[in-house]
Every structure is written in structure tokens, then in C-alpha cells.
Write a structure and sequence with these properties.
Layout: E1 3-12, E2 15-24, H1 26-61, H2 68-100, E3 108-111, H3 112-129, E4 133-137, E5 144-147, H4 149-166, E6 172-177, E7 181-183, E8 188-197, H5 219-224, H6 231-241, E9 245-250, E10 256-263
Parallel strand pairs: 4-6
Antiparallel strand pairs: 1-2, 3-5, 6-8, 7-8, 8-10, 9-10
Helix pairs in contact: 1-2, 2-6, 3-4, 4-6
The chain binds adenosine-5'-diphosphate.
EC number: 2.7.13.3
Subcellular location: Cell membrane
GO molecular function: ATP binding; phosphoprotein phosphatase activity; phosphorelay sensor kinase activity
Length: 265
């Protein structure tokens, strides 16, 4: 525990006196440390593409000036690095927006069934590139939850996107939406959205940390796939804002299940 002690002068009946106030600032300090870490991480994440871009600009001005093939190759890498930076900034903005609104629960009626179908249709061509098959099982009638449509779209997009990225080429990714039913985790009625992949799975010691910002099991792999390391942090905050729960179940070698439980009332 960290105490902040403030000393001040006060007037007492008996003459001038001193007042000491003690305040527990453990939480304030922890929040400060987190913010410092976050700024360090963001700076780090931005420095890598910036260094690459500066390096290639120099090369294009010098050695590669008259080499058309090299120029094309370097420009392709530069475009990729620029795209990575813009994805990082987009993710940082989403995270900030979600965090700012975290205290206010969104209440618009969102058709989760339609949303899941739209996301799957949108990601299908990307999955097809890796021969990943996407499927959706949803109940009738469509599932409606109170929420923010764009944010819930992002939850499904991030989870299905990860399942495609980490689920392994040629494997299946299954999205299952359940009908409303009592959810012990919520102490009330809710629905479950499960995204299941057949990838290599996640070792138990990583599970509790996966939703931390910039936590990645394999830095290089995530970067190569254009990951920012913020996807699951965004998912967690959006689910929190909806007063839901996120559960991750996985075993090495047996794929993963990302389960979002959302209240219906
Ligand atoms: P990233 O942009 O790196 O994908 P995320 O926050 O979405 O960031 O995920 C954090 C890390 O969790 C990933 O780098 C990856 O190591 C791991 N991860 C996420 N989804 C899966 C999955 N379906 N299977 C295995 N590992 C996963």
C-alpha cells in the first residue's frame, strides 16, 4: 500500500498547529504505472514501422535508385508498414472511445443474428484465401440484444478474424449463437456467442493475459499477420460495457473457444 501524507498548517484554539492527512494512493499509482507502460508500448509499436519507413526512404534515394525491381519490392514493404501504422491508430482510437463510454451501457436493439451473418459474409473471402471454412449456426427467431451495433460488430469481427488468423489454414471456424436462456455468469437471461477454431490452441498460462493491451503469444507471428495486439483488449472493453462476460477456453493442440455472454434484458 502506498500512502500519500500531506502536511498543512492549521489554526487551533490553542495556537498554530499542524495537520497530517493520510491518503491511500495505491490505486492511483497502479493506474499511473499502467498509463506509463501503455505510452511506452505505443511508442515502441510506432517506432518499428517508422524506422522501417525511414530506412527504405534512404535506400530508395541511394542504392536502389536505379533498380526498378528493388524499388517495387521496397515500396510494397513501405505500403505494408504504413497500413500497419494506420491500423494501430484506428485500434487505439476504438479502444479510447470504448473506454470513455464504459460507464454508460448502450441500449439500442441490435439483431445479433443479422450482425453475425454480415460479419461472416464480409470475412469469407479472407478466410477463403487460407481455405478456412466459416459457418454460422443461429436460432430462430433472430437474437436481439440491447447494445451498440458498431461495437458488437467489432467484437464478432475481431474474434472471427483471430480464429481465421490463428486457426490454421484449411481448418474450420464455427460461430454459434444461442437462444436467450438463463446465464449463471450474468445471474439473469442472456445469449452466448461462441467462436470456435481448430488451431493450435493457447497454453493455460497465457489465457489470463490475452486481453491485455499488446499482449501477444508470438510477437512475430502477430505482426506478420498485421495484428496490433489490441484486438482482444477492445473486445473485452466492449463486452464489459455491455455488462457481458468474455470467456476463453483453450487447450494446446485442441483449438480455442472464445465465448461472449451478453445480457438480453
Ligand atoms: P493480435 O493483433 O496480435 O491478433 P489480439 O489482441 O487480437 O492481437 O490477440 C492477442 C494474442 O492472442 C494474439 O497475438 C495471439 O497470440 C493470441 N490469440 C488470439 N486469438 C487466438 C486464437 N483464436 N487462437 C490462438 N491464439 C490466439
Amino acid at each position: 500500500t502506498t500512502w500519500q501524507v500531506t502536511i498543512g498548517a492549521v489554526a487551533l484554539d490553542t495556537g498554530p498547529g499542524v495537520a497530517l492527512s493520510f491518503e491511500d494512493i495505491t490505486e492511483v499509482e497502479a493506474a499511473d504505472a499502467m498509463r506509463r507502460d501503455f505510452v511506452t508500448n505505443v511508442s515502441h509499436e510506432l517506432r518499428t514501422p517508422i524506422t522501417a519507413l525511414s530506412g527504405f526512404i534512404e535506400t530508395l534515394r541511394g542504392a536502389a535508385r536505379d533498380d526498378a525491381a528493388a524499388r517495387e519490392r521496397f515500396l510494397a514493404i513501405m505500403a505494408r508498414e504504413a497500413a500497419r501504422m494506420s491500423q494501430l491508430v484506428a485500434d487505439l482510437l476504438s479502444l479510447a472511445r470504448v473506454e470513455q463510454g464504459e460507464r454508460h451501457r448502450p441500449t439500442a436493439a441490435v439483431d445479433l443474428s443479422a450482425l453475425a451473418a454480415q460479419v461472416i459474409a464480409l470475412l469469407d473471402p479472407i478466410a477463403a484465401r487460407d481455405r478456412v471454412t466459416l459457418s454460422l449456426t443461429a436460432p430462430e427467431p433472430p437474437v436481439i440484444v440491447p447494445g451498440d451495433e458498431e461495437q458488437l460488430r467489432q467484437v464478432i469481427t475481431n474474434l472471427v478474424g483471430n480464429a481465421i488468423k490463428y486457426g490454421g489454414a484449411g481448418r474450420a471456424v464455427e460461430v454459434t449463437l444461442g437462444a436467450p436462456e438463463p446465464q449463471p455468469e450474468l445471474r439473469g437471461p442472456g445469449v452466448r456467442l461462441v467462436v470456435r477454431d481448430q488451431g493450435e490452441g493457447i497454453a493455460a498460462h497465457h489465457l489470463p493475459r490475452l486481453t491485455e493491451r499488446f499482449y501477444r503469444i508470438d510477437q512475430h507471428r502477430s505482426r506478420d499477420m498485421g495484428g496490433t495486439g489490441l484486438g482482444l483488449a477492445i473486445v473485452k472493453h466492449i463486452v464489459n460495457r455491455h455488462r457481458g462476460r468474455l470467456r476463453i477456453e483453450s487447450r494446446e493442440g485442441q483449438g480455442s473457444r472464445f465465448i461472449v455472454i451478453l445480457p438480453v434484458g
